[in-house]
Amino acid sequence: QVELVESGGGLVQAGGSLRLSCAASGRTFNSYAMGWFRQAPGKEREFVAAISWSGGNTYYADSVKGRFTISRDNAKNTVYLQMNSLKPEDTAVYYCAATSRTPKYYLSIRAYDYWGQGTQVTVSS
Predict the structure, then answer these.
(1) Which of 5, 29, 61, 65 is least surrounded by Cβ atoms within 10 Å, i.e. has the fewest?
(2) What span, in angstroms and rounded, lies between the C-alpha atoms of 21 and 42?
(3) How far apart are CA 46 and CA 68, in angstroms?
(4) CA dihedral in degrees (7, 10, 16, 22; nearest 10)?
(5) Which of 72, 73, 76, 88 is nearest to 35 (CA)?
(6) What is the pLDDT of residues 101-125, one digit of tens each?
């Protein structure tokens, strides 16, 4: 069992930055790949970024590539999402999630076994 708690969301102007954190409970954190997803009002939840259990491989949605960076600190049981050059269309609730599946499934919501409660990110124009 893994419990995930996101933090770091808030209101920021377009062009600004935020860093989201996701703290995980449990001693098996480093056996899970981690992902970030987001859901805007009236839209489906979508993939944002993922990172392998070791942190050696990262994956990004085209819409955030070059602006967002996912990282993890297994000693702290925490995964991060650094978001730069934010745009109003980045406004959403951001969720972190954990998966034990192989990389080809990382972009799929269905691959993830555990989810956090989400943190709101609002980007004003």
Answers:
(1) 65
(2) 25
(3) 15
(4) 10
(5) 72
(6) 998 899 999 999 999 999 999 999 9
